[in-house]
Specification:
The chain is of the alpha+beta class. The protein contains 6 helices and 13 strands.
Amino acid sequence: MSRHKKPRIKKLRSMYIWHRYIGVSAALLVVILAITGLMLNHTGKLQLDSRYVSNNWLLDQYGIRAPANIRSYRVENHWLSQWGERLFLDQTGVGVTQEKLLGALYYEGMLVVALDSEVWLLTPQGELIEKLGGNEGIPAGMSAIGLTDEGRVAVMAAHGVYTADRDLVIWHDAPEAITVWIDSEDLPAGLHQRLLEKYRGQGLPLERVILDLHSGRLFGRYGIYVMDAAAVLMLFLAFSGSWIWGIRHIRNRQKKMQAHHNPKH
């Protein structure tokens, strides 16, 4: 073997070693990129946008925690509570609102729910019957709801106490009404824990986690650089693999040509 061939062989071996070790090192990241990429390409079929994560560590990573102030009221044998913008009757979601929950009571076979500027009428199962606002005569600036000693629904509004007729259609100024106002109560511990899991568990779509895992954002700002490095390593593997194949292909052709021109006797 001539002297000038040895450096070429060493270079080829060196490139092969680098190719092999980088391939092994990048294997896990490449697998993550490949699997998450495939999942994102089939988001609809996998229902990633309608499935939610319930893992506590992931929820903490995304800062999805319970609201600081949870308002809850006992209504007969049920509990109505507000978690952020979501209202729950026991464990059933009954609606979303940006207004503050002021109280609720059972009246004429319905649940009457008072918010800042609206009154919601619900079935005992939590189904919405109707929303009443200022156009339906609801007094402005409500701060509490209760029942009078005559069994009428009353609200504390910006200009005093108002009571409604039996159908909750007409509201009258009633400053002298004797009213028992509804006070908030703490949720039972078991129900609070179940609602906490329910509230947090519907705040993080699986699609977002897969997307952030694919980009590396799941692991913070440095995770992005790790995935960028994985992409660079994949490029290196592609080029080094092509280079190794090309050198071997050329060497094999040279060997064949030499064998053809120098046949064995």
